[in-house]
Amino acid sequence: APRRGGGAADDDPYPLPAGDGARALILLDVALVTTDAAGAAAPPALVLRGLAECRGASDASVAAFIGLVADLADHPEARVLIEVVSPQQAAAGP
C-alpha cells in the first residue's frame, strides 16, 4: 500500500488505505467538502466560506480543508463526484 511518510512499510504508523478502503475514504472526503455545517449539500467554495466565517480564516481547519480540496482536485474520480453531488451555484457572492 502507498505510504504517507515515504518510509518503509514497518515504520509508517499511518499507511494509506488501498482498494475498497481507499474508495470509502474518497467518498467520505467528497461528502465532507460538499456538505455545509447544517448538513445541506453545498459547493466546496460555500463550505469553505462557512468554515472560515465560523473558525476564522487563519484556523488550522481552514488550511486543512483547502489542502483536502487540492488533493481531491488531483484525483479524477473524486473530482467527478464533487461535480455531480455539488449543487450548482447561480452566482457567487463576495
Explain how this protein is built.
- This protein is mainly alpha-helical.
- Helix content is 53%, strand content 0%.
- The chain has helices spanning 20-33, 44-55, 60-73, 76-85.
Task: Describe the secondary-structure layout.
Blueprint: H1 20-33, H2 44-55, H3 60-73, H4 76-85
Helix pairs in contact: 1-3, 2-3
Annotation keywords:
94 residues; mainly alpha; disordered N terminus
Q: What gyration radius follows from the Cα positions, in whole Å?
A: 15 Å
- Which geometry do the CA atoms define? globular
Helix content: 40-55%
Low-confidence stretches: 1-7
Strand proportion, as a percent range, falls in under 5%
Strands, total number: 0
Largest sheet: none
Secondary structure category: mainly alpha
Helix count, per DSSP? 4
Average pLDDT figure: 85
Order of helices and strands: HHHH
Q: What is the terminal separation in angstroms?
A: 43 Å
In brief:
By secondary structure, the chain is mainly alpha-helical.
